[in-house]
Amino acid sequence: MSAAEDLGYREKPHELKWVGTNVARTDGVDKVTGRARFGADLIMPGMLFGAVLRSPHAHARINGIDTSKAEAVKGVKAVITRKDFEDQPSEMIQVGELTVNIRDVIRNVLAREKAMYDGHAVAAVAATSASIARKALKLIDVDYEVLPHVIDVVEAMKPDAPLLNEDQFTDGVDPKPDRPSNVAKRLEIKLGDVEKGFAEADVVIEREYKTRPVHQGYIEPHACVASYTEDGQGEVWCSTPGHFLVRAITSRLCGIEVSKLKVTASEIGGGFGGKNIVYLEPLALALSRKCGRPVKIAMHRNEVFRATGPTSGSHMKVKIGARHDGKITAGWAELMFQAGAFPGSPVFPAAMCAYACYDLENVLVIGYDVVANRPKTTAYRAPGAQISAFAVESAMDEMARELGIDPVDLRLMNAAKEGTKAAYGPTFGPVGQVETLQAIKNHPNYNVPLGPNQGRGVASGFWFNIGGETSVTMNVNDDGTIALTVGNPDLSGTRTSISVMAAEELGIEPERIRPAVGDTTSLGFNFISAGSRTTFAVGKATVEVARVVIDELRARAAATWNIPVEAVVWEDGHARPASSNAGDFEPLSLEDIARDAKKTGGPIAGHVETNVSGAGPSFATEAVDIEVDPETGHIKILSFTAAQDAGKAIQPNLVEGQYQGAAVQGIGWALNEEYIYDEQGRMENPGFLDYRMPVASDLPMIDAVIVEVPNPNHPYGVRGIGETSIVPVMAAVANALDDATGVRVQELPLSPPRVLKALNEKNGNRLG
Amino acid sequence: MRYEAPETMEAAVALLASDDNARVLAGGTDLLVQLRADTIDPSLVVDVKKIDAMRTVTAEDGGFRVGAAVTGAELGEHEEFKSVWPGVVEALELIGSTQIQSRATMGGNLCNASPAADSVPAMIAAGAIATIEGPNGSRDIPVEDVATGPGRTSLRKGELVASFLFPEQAPRTGDAYLRFIPRTEMDIAVVGAGVCLTLDESGLCTAARVSLGAVAALALVPDEAADALMGTSVDEAALARLSEVASAAAKPIDDKRGTKEFRIQVTGVMARRAAEIALARAKGK
Question: Quick count: other Cβ atoms within 10 Å of Cβ B102?
Fold first, then answer.
């Protein structure tokens, strides 16, 4: 077996030189100097500016669209509507961690029979200036027949609710229903017998919870430039975590062959899952095809909020049973998730993750995927897991209080560990849940005395992580430097982490490796940067490709020395004879071999195309201290500690950044973020002023604790780390609120009006 | 759209009088946002930043005259003004970020006529007078008489707010402004309260003005809130009374920024807390 074939984790025989240290980001200088080119930064010769007309109605039949007045405007070069795209059949395709129906994708990109939500794209214009394009939009006459709409998930599930899709019958119900419904699907995650489990329980906690839809809130709005030429070649430049996905969907919707569309990923200014889907690219390409000039479309923030991927709002019921000694005997939940206008909410992962932190015998989680007149949900950092965790981890906290057991200890007593059979199917290998709980328990922040109106909350979370299709190419340049081409856009410094692993394998300094994200013509297929897969899967493929290249370097040295390749080893960036028996040769450096490559067989390169498996799940436990203003209900975050199992932190500072960023997003979700709708179903707060994400001064420094329980399926033990740290946050904050005030709030966000109302009710105040 | 940047008040007034769809540009922190959001479409924009008189702070009759286009950052660095009217300065400085502060002006904040404008209740509590220039010369009106409703002012065609007069302050006077926002900055007041009070030598309150923002279509100036403090030593009982009458005076609506009941309750809290700060300042003078 060659080294390249064994990609499992082994304790390293020597000290790691670069893995586990902090190396300067390869994209750092470009990002801090403003040179990095994002989606809206490309300018092409003759380029036009596109703009999208969006529905002002939450639900309306489109009886006609008259574009003639817009087309007559000087400077307008193309106008497209639904008739410029062929319809698609109902067929499921994979999009990131979620699957979507291509029939729905075409409808989401551009409304067909109906506008399904406020902000739904209805037509698009390309013109010689952005202002002409915007003016032309106002001249498009759309004949809307406004229909009753529904937004709230409970309302949408009612039998008499306005129907979004008359052809939708609830899936997963036996017998098949005879009436259409907004409930797209019912699903179950089941282990053991919950009835038996509840019968064994001494204490049962049963509660209901509600969460509001929230947006990923990435800084960079969606943007792309597309060009279509007379010979049928298409090119797209866009901000995406997966340009191979953009190619797949755009070529399909525009009816062109995959080989005729080249997609290049720009730098990406945040996505968090929200860009795991295609909105603008087919519109820009169709406009370009119509007028023969490149077209740029960049969304305004208003469009980002109204038309792109928020995650679900939810209504949840949870029931947990436990014995007096703290043993949890059963966990039950019912999760109702808003999918938005088309099916595909993250209710399935939510159901799978709901009790994954615990070693339980009896679990039943029922999920409902429910359409509503809102933008189609897309992934958001550990999709769904954060939502079900808010419910389950809030109930766990109440259970701990009821049993009189410290919340960390109750979780420790029931923690998932190696050998635990998860309700969603697998039996865990080595996992770090116990270690994250211990890390929190032993952290100084968990033991700081609390003052008046202060409280402490703790919660845990789980995320699967994934592998997936990955292609990597490594070229040895003639000066001994390395060009490393990967196919996954860099969301979080992954180019740097990947180069560091390559450097460790090759035994050369990381700065000698230049990583790049190749376009879709330069590599085999790559699954998108999602599911915390990039450092794990691309890293694993990169280790493999480095070992392929090392084998070639050994072969070149063997040829130079005229000895068998088995007699050559690779150490510290040099080929050396394996022993004195092999011969007495001066070691050859990578530079030496690269310089003479022409003489020894030509360019040296390696490539790997693989479907990476063996992703290691990552657990997190977090603790938060808050102070509540009893007169206003305002919550101040005093400290926040996030302990997550990284498996191995390739770049500790980047890992800490992920824990901190995830915690901050969760804090925003917990405290103030929510979609607010008016009576017509229009979003009232489509901007960062009134969609209240936290600002820097709202936050303490987030204390990140890196737990390392190696993933046995990665050469350096890497798990994915990008997502889990958001999962526990909302429950942790709600638990802290209970600790501080004795008030349990079961609905997000924990905004001042909601908290003050709850305090009034508890205190019997005038407004109670 | 035409852009003009006159250097004299007369030229600015003439330009504004010449076009029914003209808008004044001071810092532009509201105007430019409205332009980009397509909510306004003016045919003429008159930039007043080149008019010296609108950009300076000068002493006048023992008080201060502050140009309407003086920025938050500039006023915040005016040590003398800041020591006399810390409440006005802190209100103005609450608007936006550091970057916004280098543009945002009190004149703009007032004439944008948002019910939630932070500097307005503070100016009203301070008893500031707006000097308005127009085709028929200049006139002075109390700040509270400028806005007439959300986005509407009492300014006539061709008029603009040129400056504010902060009259000479009585001894032992303190002012303060507090607002409630769910975050710590970069937000719009859900409730705002400006308080200015004067103590006599024995510590009794001899003058008081209270103004409430974001709880009605206009900044409120409830007499009963001032009366709650007058003649008292601004003790616990007076503060409790202030809190109660301020809440009672609030006439808010439910909107995306807060519920009606929340605003009513928190109005009292903000008024009381602002009065406590104003009291401490008055005692320190």
Answer: 14
